[in-house]
Design brief:
By secondary structure, this protein is mainly alpha-helical. The chain has one domain. The protein is built from four helices and no strands.
Length: 120
């Protein structure tokens, strides 16, 4: 596969994950302590599939510099998502809004870098 196609595919998966993330954030800001498990899992699976595809591309055909930095940010965001899931969601505790916001900002920055790499 060519890197551009893999980046575009990852971008589509990340857009789907972002919609789920926006939905979950909206629920949390509306007062729900945590989202439904199916939505959290779908969000994580879509983002994880995108990150896995980008990792594969990085190690096989190579990625442009901006996409590689975006991948690093996605990995950091994934660590934040795993932290939220294991320490709060799985225990039925309210998700901390501050950690949620940092998770989202890091992911959005990674998404922006991926878009720049696709358009360049």
């Amino acid at each position: 596969m060519e890197p551009l196609l893999m980046m575009k595919t990852a971008c589509a998966l990340l857009a789907i994950a972002a919609l789920g993330g926006l939905g979950m954030a909206g629920m949390r800001f509306a007062g729900r302590p945590h989202p439904p498990a199916w939505l959290a899992m779908a969000h994580g699976f879509a983002a994880g599939a995108a990150a896995t595809l980008l990792l594969y591309a990085y190690f096989t055909v190579g990625l442009p510099r901006f996409a590689a930095w975006g991948l690093l940010l996605f990995i950091i965001a994934a660590v934040g998502g795993i932290y939220l899931n294991l320490n709060y969601h799985m225990k039925g505790q309210p998700l901390p809004i501050g950690v949620m916001i940092v998770h989202a900002l890091v992911a959005v920055a990674g998404f922006a870098l991926l878009i720049v790499a696709i358009l360049a």
